[in-house]
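Contributing new records

If you add data, match the layout below exactly. Sequence lines come first and carry their own label; structure lines follow with theirs. Keep one chain per record. Anything else will be rejected by the validation script.
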Amino acid sequence: MFIIGCHLSSSKGYLAMGKDALSIGANTFQFFTRNPRGGAAKELDREDVQMYDLFAEEHGFGPVLAHAPYTMNPCAATESLREFSLSTMLDDLERLNLIPGSLYNFHPGSHVGQGIDAGIELISETLAKLVCAPGNTPILLETMAGKGSEVGSRFEELKRIIDLAGGSPRIGVTLDTCHVYDAGYDIVGDLDGVLDEFDRVIGLQRLKAIHLNDSKNPFASHKDRHEKIGLGSIGTDAFGRIVNHPALKDLTFCLETPQDELQGWGAEIELLKSLRKE
């Protein structure tokens, strides 16, 4: 099954997100667990969650992808900010226990001048606590583009975080196509080589989801600016190879491309489905 969706606003609730996804031909979606720029999560509507669970089962939805807010930084220089990140993610995981098969994605963070080694150690400390939280929701580190002091633009950095956190099978990775391309992994000219490297360093068994984004910038630019599918430097042909690759085709795919309205993602989903060879 081709599991494909886009990033939706969670302000209307889970059932509404599910219906929006279905209306554009999607069978999954991604959402922010709370305001992406910070703030407390709104009170959980358990009836809405139960109705969504029934809806998702009826329509054969794949795993949904919950995205932690951007403001969290598990490797911040200030202890209070690191504690805020941990408490936020623990609260998110508790909520996600109500959504069977969900995935939890977060940006590893920025070391803000402390150095890559210090950043990796601090992120792993938070991750080690998260994997001990009740439930079994996979916790996914997202591959990053390497702008500024971001941690996680190299597979080796993600591997070190996973190992220092104890290597729990609950820890996985989300591969963002724009990010890895901007980071210097040639998914256009050598997708097989990139995935072989991922397997050698991290292990493909940890790859759980794909963010499908074209890039406004050239290869290895370390910029992280998403573009609509086929309109950036990655290009349509490369996305055809990505959605059909044997190592990727059964994963959850989610668009994070810049769109002004829901139907824009619907057109991209239609395009990607036309590239898919079942």
